[in-house]
Amino acid sequence: MRTRFVAGNWKMNKTGEETRVLVAEMLPELSAIKGADKAVCPPAPYLMSLANLLAGSGVGLGAQNMHWEASGAFTGEIAPKMVAEFCQYVILGHSERRAYFGETDEMVNKKVKAALAVGLTPIMCVGETLDENEAGQTAAVVSRQTKGGLAGLTPEEAVKIVVAYEPVWAIGTGRAATSQQAQDVHANVVRKSLADLFGKDAAEAIRIQYGGSVNAKNAAELFGMPDIDGALVGGASLKAPDFIAIVKAAAG
Length: 252
Ligand code: PGA
Known about the structure:
By secondary structure, this protein is an alpha/beta fold. The protein has helices spanning 16-32, 47-54, 80-84, 95-101, 105-117, 130-134, 138-149, 155-158, 179-198, 200-205, 219-223, 240-251; strands spanning 5-9, 37-41, 60-63, 89-92, 121-126, 162-165, 207-211, 230-233. It is built from 12 helices and 8 strands. 2-phosphoglycolic acid binds at residues 9, 166, 171-172, 211-214, 232-236. Residues 9, 166, 171-172, 211-214, 232-236 line the site of 2-phosphoglycolic acid.
């Protein structure tokens, strides 16, 4: 069975001191929760100090992005090995990276491969925009992103990754997908695409998170769905009580 996994995407928020305060607030309760995997993904400058705070706590650490090249003249970028020095996870292909920084499925695919090569677990994000949703293109877009981002992986590699289905219209809007809407895409689009690529057994082993306005109130219902294996949480991950409640809901 798949262990549910909740990750907090802090995006470009908080000062260094605020990140340490937030972690200190969450850590005792979070590390006591068994039965679900959990991680926080702070801005890159804080990874080192938070890695020290989280060491041995059972709460993982993730970056929000990285480059695919190992090193070189890429001013402002962070290499996979630099991330792997501090983190277990890396969010890749978030819709904000796709929309504002021009990330394509091909770039996401290079990043996924580079992350696996250094032992990081990629959390690869997919999801349709409002326009695409209203035009009935959800399945086409999400399956293209899933297959494009994971092209060329072996089934053995694929089972190490996490996919996050995040409909863009649900991110930061307070308007989450219903549990049934999310379940449909998870089962009939994402997991089906995974089965097409890697076979049924591998597809059944891969965790698919839902993301987009997950909060302490709607989490349990989402996690009650058979193909929703956790959440990638933005806004609600910045508040200790809310994030703790979501992780507790995932632990069941
Ligand atoms: P949200 O963001 O929970 O604030 O909607 C989710 C995300 O972008 O990962």
